[in-house]
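User: Assemble these into one structure.

Assistant: Restating your components, then the assembled model:
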Amino acid sequence: VNSDEDLCAMMAGYLAGEIEAFDALYAALAARLRGYFVSLCHDAAVADDLLQETFMRLHRSRRTYQPGRPVLPWVFAIARHVFLMHRRATARRLRAHGELAEELQRANAASAAPAVPADRDELRRALRGVPPAQRQALLMHHVGDHSFAEIAEQLDLRPNAAKTRAFRGIQRMRELLKG
Amino acid sequence: MKAPAPLRSSIERDLKPARPLARPGVRALAVVPLAAAIVVGVPALHAFRADVAVIGFLRAWGFSIGQAVAGCTIVALALRESVPGRGLSRLALAATVVVGLALPLVVLLLTTSNFSVGAVDHAAWEGFVCFRTSALAAVPALLFAAALAARALPLRPAAAGALYGLGTGLMSDAGLRLYCDYSTLGHMVFGHVGAVAGVTVAGAALATFIQWIRE
């Protein structure tokens, strides 16, 4: 374990542009920083990435170190910042993935829906060709989602008659669409 | 433990001697000329308060200089906050903001001889004029302090920005109080403390924006 004075001396060398001082600093701090990251993210591979990122950050911000002051609070403040940035970026990525997954699900659901005649006008024309009584029962059941019992009650029919009307309406439409 | 070769080589390629930043207190001295210019400039550009002879030199200039020094001290705290590992505790941060915002009111209580002075017919307009004058006067110092803080590495940019916003807001209010002699509470809260609070929020927003650009 290096004392504060050792670390300060290493930082002084690093600020003076000595690569050996960087090597010494890495040797002194890497294991501690890696342990810190593992305790935060519980993932050794991510901890290794964060360790590299932290040393890059330390390098870019080395001017902010004030000679003579303890090195560890400076280093760990930057390390914590690197971790928080990583966590924020991960959350953003997950959110983007979630949105993408939802979009794909919606697209799949749309492509799995029953085939619709390409020409809506054709469908409308066929519907107009169905006798009104049958059309009413057909629309109430297939579009309005009413049960045959409800249709029978509303149209003052027996349930079987409502079912027959809707069925005959569909048959008529099929004929018209084929023909 | 040895540094991985790619990391070591990229650092070695870029490694040059680097001069460390001066201590925050020393760097904050760079704001002092601007603070002096604001304190003198605001009343010089408008007019000195009518009761300046009544309240005397110490209560007029002395308290304004004191308030400007407090502003510079808070800018120094902002520069300290911008150094990794030297951030203020939440309690210290909150206490600084509360004390900073209360300062213009305390100075008013210590210096005003008559508490009923204020515009009756155009109170809202007069309040707005003070708010605008104070906020605009703070802009140069705010931008300068933002540049000073951005040279370091503020890890909590909103906190650092709020602090330098508060500091520069106090500097501009120190000049404004040499011009404005209104002492009604509503005017003080909106036109003076409100302007300091507004510059504080603007500082936090500016620092967050700078950080967003950097990231």
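Chain B has a mean pLDDT of 90.
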